[in-house]
């Protein structure tokens, strides 16, 4: 398994004593998470145009200089392989001996223990390092950041108990108030602020990075005394942060380590008990596991690596608790009729959706056409049963969604902003999964009408007349229909991203409804994939035309939207960063591919990829070392063209992706 970066990351999620009552609305002000009850109660309310207010260009930026970034920390975390071995050994020791005595359900594995009750003495040095940290957010901004996390991240991945988290926040009150909370909770709180701060224009990324680094120091310290499960929760939160800041490889390694740690801690074998507290602890473990599995599979799609966990359902899916209703989170009133949305429904829907990732990535490998092989021979020998099964299962998944998560127009959109966001996010993610399923046949659809050296005179295998012939195989028709649908899916995904993209939040009254789709760090990969599909669709021969689904005009408009959105993400923050660089590289590569395709009617866009990119793409997709050759080259006299650019990923474009 890949190793996490040297600055090893571990985070913790707080959960104080079980007697504390939920105080949900304390950290969900109306300006960020909900509207007034009168507005929420309005039936059949169409989505309002957000009450845009004039945004002052001179927005105050909260930042911290790098030379002040937590220099008082006294613990240096273990680095590299030593850190991994140390933590894995601790996990093994816990599983085989000490852990059984200390980490029973009765000990509240997921609870945040006050410093005086933590296992073992807490060093004064650690308290000092927290107290002197330069975290100087105004209290109102801090509350807004917590509310944003709860309304946009927690509801999609409920990895801790909401009531206990809020009670812990009440005890701390201020990030400097170390005496009121454990270092574990402070690490969690810093990660919550870091994650939600990425959505705000007023907060400098350097400041968020300093919080992230300090959380790493806290959770990797040798005298960690909180629950090992809290450490796993911290790993998950830090993996989310790395993903959101454009470091997918580091995030993938870290989330994979968190999953392995959960396996070593025995999550999949824990038996349920009769008490309510035992059930709550068990459900929290399942939520954490499946949230991590979902993130790991999203990252696997992004970097082109098969998922590490082959059978994620070895841990049962979580079940609903009475505190899981979304109106309990947002502070709203239950709807008078119909379904009552729950945060668990979204988690279950995503877990089932990303359960298809392993099969789809295997299908991509199986259906891939080598640049030196015949597409027709590949297609006629291809077993399409996995493709048809995956397509049928995705359709079954879609129709089985609860009504409030349906996006097909049959149901009235929810008037709760959280539910609306979940519906929009789920639709975008499902479209991307479908695009990845259909894309291999789109590549074949481009290769079949092209000249092929295995036929006399390089005659194509499929022309307009042959495609409609009674003698042609039915698989030709399947390729044609799938290629059209792949292009239609890409256009719908781009439209969904553009419709819901409103830029960064600024703390205004309209933030509740703004950016109601997938976050920008997801969208960069989606847009690049859609851009390559749109370019490929423009090359489809006339027999592939279906004016009802795709047309030259629609493809042209979609292409312009892709480039416009990538430019927006490139300039989203003045400080740039890995994500801005990824957006810029994606935009430049798509423009280069488009220029190369204009010069090659056959669809040969090899010139649109530089030598290093072609090498990385070939190595990833063909398992062939290509650096010494500079990428695929056709033999002399060959009529075949290289179409591997269609399935390229942003990770192929930049060798410095972390």
Give structural attributes.
mainly alpha; single chain; 2 domains; Xylanolytic transcriptional activator regulatory domain-containing protein; 658 residues; globular; 24 helices
Topology:
Layout: H1 37-40, H2 80-96, H3 98-102, H4 124-131, H5 139-154, H6 162-172, H7 183-197, H8 205-219, H9 228-244, H10 248-264, H11 276-303, H12 326-330, H13 343-353, H14 357-367, H15 375-381, H16 385-399, H17 417-447, H18 464-467, H19 474-500, H20 520-538, H21 552-570, H22 578-599, H23 611-622, H24 650-653
Helix pairs in contact: 5-7, 7-8, 7-9, 9-10, 9-11, 10-11, 11-13, 13-17, 14-17, 16-17, 17-19, 17-20, 19-20, 19-21, 20-21, 20-22, 21-22
Domain Xylanolytic transcriptional activator regulatory: 251-324
Protein name: Xylanolytic transcriptional activator regulatory domain-containing protein
Keywords: DNA-binding, Nucleus, Transcription, Transcription regulation
Give an overview in words:
By secondary structure, the protein is mainly alpha-helical. The protein has two domains: 24-30 and 76-311, no CATH class; 343-653, no CATH class. Helix content is 52%, strand content 0%. It contains 24 helices and no strands. Helix 9 runs parallel beside helix 11 and helix 19 (474-500) crosses helix 20 (520-538). Residues 1-76, 91-107, 112-135 and 624-639 have low confidence and may be disordered. Keywords: DNA-binding, Nucleus, Transcription, Transcription regulation. One of its GO terms (biological process) is DNA-templated transcription. Pfam families: Fungal_trans (PF04082). This is Xylanolytic transcriptional activator regulatory domain-containing protein. Residues 1-58, 113-134, 601-639 are annotated as: Disordered.
């Amino acid at each position: 398994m890949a190793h996490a970066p040297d600055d090893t990351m571990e985070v913790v999620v707080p959960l104080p004593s079980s007697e504390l009552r939920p105080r949900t609305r304390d950290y969900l002000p109306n300006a960020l998470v909900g509207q007034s009850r009168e507005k929420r109660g309005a039936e059949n309310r169409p989505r309002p145009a957000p009450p845009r207010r004039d945004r002052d260009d001179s927005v105050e930026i909260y930042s911290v200089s790098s030379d002040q970034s937590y220099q008082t920390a006294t613990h240096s975390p273990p680095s590299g392989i030593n850190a991994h071995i140390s933590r894995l050994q601790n996990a093994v020791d816990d599983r085989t001996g000490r852990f059984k005595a200390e980490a029973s359900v009765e000990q509240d594995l997921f609870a945040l223990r006050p410093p005086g009750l933590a296992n073992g003495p807490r060093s004064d040095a650690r308290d000092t390092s927290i107290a002197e940290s330069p975290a100087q957010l105004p209290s109102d901004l801090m509350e807004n950041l917590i509310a944003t996390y709860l309304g946009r991240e927690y509801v999609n991945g409920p990895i801790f108990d909401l009531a206990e988290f809020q009670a812990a926040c009440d005890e701390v009150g201020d990030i400097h108030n170390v005496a009121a909370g454990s270092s574990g909770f402070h690490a969690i709180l810093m990660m919550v602020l870091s994650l939600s701060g990425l959505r705000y224009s007023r907060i400098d990324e350097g400041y968020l990075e300093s919080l992230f680094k300090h959380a790493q120091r806290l959770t990797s310290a040798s005298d960690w005394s909180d629950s090992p499960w809290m450490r796993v929760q911290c790993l998950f939160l830090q993996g989310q942060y790395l993903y959101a800041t454009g470091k997918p490889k580091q995030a993938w390694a870290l989330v994979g380590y968190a999953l392995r740690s959960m396996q070593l801690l025995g999550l999949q074998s824990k038996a349920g008990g009769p008490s309510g507290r035992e059930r709550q602890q068990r459900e929290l473990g399942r939520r954490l596991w499946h949230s991590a599995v979902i993130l790991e599979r999203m990252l696997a799609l992004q970097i082109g690596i098969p998922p590490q966990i082959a059978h994620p359902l070895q841990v049962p899916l979580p079940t609903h608790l009475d505190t899981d209703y979304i109106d309990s989170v947002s502070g709203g009133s239950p709807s008078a009729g119909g379904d009552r949305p729950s945060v668990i429904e979204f988690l279950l829907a995503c877990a089932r959706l990303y359960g298809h990732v392993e099969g789809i990535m295997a299908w991509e490998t199986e259906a891939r056409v080598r640049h030196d092989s015949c597409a027709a021979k590949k297609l006629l020998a291809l077993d399409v049963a996995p493709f048809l099964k995956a397509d049928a299962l995705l359709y079954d998944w879609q129709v089985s969604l609860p009504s409030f998560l349906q996006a097909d127009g049959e149901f009235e959109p929810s008037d709760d902003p959280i539910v609306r966001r979940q519906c929009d996010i789920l639709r975008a993610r499902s479209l991307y999964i479908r695009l990845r399923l259909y894309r291999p046949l789109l590549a074949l659809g481009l290769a079949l009408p092209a000249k092929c050296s295995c036929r006399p005179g390089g005659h194509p295998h499929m022309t307009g007349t042959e495609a409609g012939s009674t003698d042609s195989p039915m698989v030709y028709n399947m390729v044609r229909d799938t290629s059209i649908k792949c292009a239609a899916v890409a256009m719908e995904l781009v439209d969904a991203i553009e419709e819901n993209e409103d830029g960064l939040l600024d703390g205004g009254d309209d933030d509740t409804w703004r950016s109601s789709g997938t976050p920008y760090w997801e969208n960069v990969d989606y847009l690049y994939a859609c851009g390559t599909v749109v370019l490929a669709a423009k090359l489809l021969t006339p027999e592939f035309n279906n004016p009802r689904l795709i047309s030259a005009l629609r493809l042209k408009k979609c292409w312009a939207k892709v480039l416009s959105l990538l430019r927006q993400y490139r300039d989203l923050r003045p400080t740039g960063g890995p994500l801005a660089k990824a957006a810029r590289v994606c935009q430049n590569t798509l423009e280069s591919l488009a220029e190369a395709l204009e010069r090659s009617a056959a669809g040969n866009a090899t010139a649109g990829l530089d030598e290093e990119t072609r090498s990385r793409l070939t190595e990833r997709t063909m398992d062939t070392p290509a650096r010494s050759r500079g990428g695929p080259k056709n033999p002399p006299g060959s009529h075949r063209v290289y179409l591997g650019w269609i399935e390229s990923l942003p990770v192929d474009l930049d060798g410095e992706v972390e």
